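To the wet lab folks,

You asked to see what we're planning to order before we commit. Fair enough. Below is the target structure as tokens, and below that is the sequence we designed to fit it. If anything looks off to you, flag it before the synthesis order goes out.
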């Protein structure tokens, strides 16, 4: 049973949940703990690493995309997402977040302009800090003059190989690890089986605290590579639904798993 969903997005980035709607969504899923891990952004209303929101335990987190060296640390590699848990604001983190958000806005405007020109429609979108591609996909799906749904927009227009995609600037892996390690209780690798080179991504966990073992991929990967990384690098196991809509609890930790996670995040002994 999922007690802790440790990968959730809100309207602070590209999700639809808010701090006000989180407790009801969590109750519906039977979830007692949620980590708010907005893309490249800390949540302005969370003023401590862990807070109580109407009886729901909320861990303040962040999901930061980085441009790593490859698993050996000697050249450009596939971009990966880092999950920082137990955020305490630092000047260094704020500087990185502000830089990334400026680029996110520039990139978001470019994607919207590309999609509108490609489809010949006005999506009526305002691009603000926290903006992400899901907002574009939702707008396209809702527009009366398009025949693309949410996933079709990603598949045909704004996915990495799509005609409207714009690559964005992100921090290096080394910078991301340094900044998150100073600001967070735990830093882990998100959804390892979403990367093209799973082995290279998992090799990066040698420099991290944790790895997201439980995730709703839509297929059933062999967990042994992740389990081996956990053993080899003494990693904390995390898990979450990566919710951008309102359904929680699709993946996460059970009560014992959360106890271990929380002890590690708080710096205590398990």
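Sequence we intend to order:
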């Amino acid at each position: 049973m999922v007690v802790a969903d440790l990968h959730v997005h809100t309207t602070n980035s590209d999700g639809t949940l808010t701090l006000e709607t989180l407790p009801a969504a969590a109750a519906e899923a039977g979830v007692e703990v949620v980590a708010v891990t907005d893309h490249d952004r800390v949540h302005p209303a969370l003023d401590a690493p862990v807070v109580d929101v109407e009886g729901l335990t909320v861990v303040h987190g962040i999901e930061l995309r980085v441009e790593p060296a490859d698993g050996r640390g000697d050249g450009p590699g596939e971009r990966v997402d880092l999950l920082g848990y137990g955020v305490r604001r630092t000047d260094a983190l704020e500087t990185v977040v502000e830089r990334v958000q400026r680029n996110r806005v520039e990139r978001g405007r470019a994607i919207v302009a590309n999609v509108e020109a490609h489809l010949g429609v006005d999506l009526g979108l305002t691009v603000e800090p926290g903006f992400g591609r899901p907002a574009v996909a939702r707008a396209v799906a809702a527009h009366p003059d398009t025949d693309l749904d949410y996933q079709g927009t990603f598949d045909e227009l704004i996915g990495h190989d799509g005609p409207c995609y714009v690559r964005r600037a992100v921090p290096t892996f080394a910078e991301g690890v340094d900044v998150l390690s100073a600001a967070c209780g735990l830093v882990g690798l998100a959804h390892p089986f979403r990367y093209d080179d799973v082995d290279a991504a998992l090799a990066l966990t040698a420099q991290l605290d944790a790895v997201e073992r439980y995730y709703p991929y839509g297929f059933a990967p062999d967990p042994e590579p992740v389990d081996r990384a956990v053993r080899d690098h003494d990693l904390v196991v995390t898990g979450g639904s990566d919710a951008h809509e309102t359904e929680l609890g699709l993946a996460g930790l059970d009560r014992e798993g959360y106890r271990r996670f929380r002890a590690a995040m708080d710096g205590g002994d398990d």
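Structural context that might help your review: Strands lie at 4-8, 33-39, 50-53, 56-66, 80-85, 186-189, 210-214, 236-239. The CA atoms of residues 50 and 270 lie 18 Å apart.

Thanks,
Computational group
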